[in-house]
Amino acid sequence: MDMITNPMEIENRSFEIISSELEGKEFKKENANILKRVIHTSADFDYADNLFFSEGVVASAQNTLRNGAAIITDTQMGSSGINKRAAAKLGCEVLCFVDSPEVAQIAKESGHTRSREAVDYAARTVAGPLVFAVGNAPTALIRICELVEAGVLDPALVIAVPVGFVNVVESKELVLSLKAPHIVARGRKGGSNVAAAIVNALMYEITDRD
Amino acid sequence: MDMITNPMEIENRSFEIISSELEGKEFKKENANILKRVIHTSADFDYADNLFFSEGVVASAQNTLRNGAAIITDTQMGSSGINKRAAAKLGCEVLCFVDSPEVAQIAKESGHTRSREAVDYAARTVAGPLVFAVGNAPTALIRICELVEAGVLDPALVIAVPVGFVNVVESKELVLSLKAPHIVARGRKGGSNVAAAIVNALMYEITDRD
Q: Between chains, do B163 and A77 touch, taking CB under 8 Å as contact?
């Protein structure tokens, strides 16, 4: 097989193919890199119709990331997919509390999901601007919305891209009316890989990746 | 929002929805749980047409996993998505060498990709039956095929589900003619999440998950 094997060449060629197949689709230039990276990670062009960006979200999110933020994921898989070198260069840290013994204990006592309690835990314990990257848990999204509406959480960005068949669509629709900046994959599709791709796309426009 | 929040209830209801929407699609009963879990992780019914299973692969893979195997992933994200408790109960370990400094050094010297060298490293250093779960790197798949054809690697299972636009389709088509047992997502779609979902689906039929 005659192949390109240089990772950056492969990625550049992939983005050329994606750009070419996106011709005719409407999207704002400022959101293009996120859309393309999500398609790159999923090979699924449905995202051209599914991804929703609140007004000015990319500029505001990049401004936050540039000054160092805590990026909170709802799964270890989401955390794994985020480029830690790029995050470190920006002074950002990537945190996931869903498997922490403390959160597990709180969830056991409250009867709520660990995903929900992990949001409360992050809101309570993490200083500085918070970026939530939610690719799995509707209960995490719903809790974020509740805390924002109660005035006790003011996230710099909510990435709302859980995948699935139960509570997922509804929880993402809730985020659409959130005053906080948000990026939402409407419908059933999404995932931890998509959440990580969105964070990486935001970072790669403003820093080196390695 | 009136919601089911118990994770197992959510999963059961999700699988009911998936089963119902799969009606009319043709697939072997023995492969059904893998197909459904891949759709569960992606919300993408294209996999009903894309997933290819070699003859008897599920029974042979489960026989291997039941007796303890090394599950080798090509990304940390794939490794993150595999249920470690279920793996431990079966006596399986989950390994990923792509970020190992030794593999990085070998790749630097050889000029090959780290993904390819990670396959050689696993083949050379890991004892016992090997299950490869490849959700990202075409060069890993191609190297597995080369080593099998050279008679120096005899994997118990090759999960061939990279996602992407360059080399991806071709590398997966190569695996289809491999004598070793394989599960392939034909076309562009796949990913580390899909690779992990396939491993988990195989394990969940033969052990508890927690």
A: no
pLDDT tens across A35-73, in order?
Answer: 999 999 999 999 999 999 999 999 999 999 999 999 999
Tokens (6 digits) for A175: 């985020």
ipTM comes to 0.94
> How would DSSP label each residue in B63-128?
HHHHT--EEEESSHHHHHHS-HHHHHHTT-EEEE-TT-HHHHHHHHHH-S-HHHHHHHHHHHH--S
Instruction: List chain B residues with CB under 8 Å of A1.
Output: 142, 167, 170-171, 174
Tell me the per-residue pLDDT of B88-119, one tens digit each, with 9 for 90 and over. 999 999 999 999 999 999 999 999 999 999 99
Averaged confidence pLDDT in chain A: 96
CB nearest B166 (choices: A13, A77, A163): A13
The verdict on a CB contact (< 8 Å) between A170 and B1 is yes
Best CA proximity match to A80, nearest among A59, A98, A63: A98
Cβ of residue B171 closer than 8 Å to a chain A Cβ: yes
In angstroms, the Cα distances linking B78 to A171, B194, B198 are 26, 8, 11
Q: Which residue in the set A17, A167, A193 is minimally distant from B165, CB to CB?
A: A17
- Residue A3: Cβ within 10 Å count: 13
Pair A71, A94: CB distance under 8 Å: yes
Pick from A18, A138, A142: CB nearest B165? A18
Tally A–B CB contacts below 8 A.
Answer: 114
Q: How far apart are CA A56 and CA A157, in angstroms?
A: 11
- Helix (H) or strand (E) run with residue A166 in it: none
Mean pLDDT, rounded, of chain B = 96
Instruction: List the Cα angle B73/B79/B80 in 5-degree steps.
Output: 160
CA B171 to chain A, closest CA, distance in angstroms equals 9
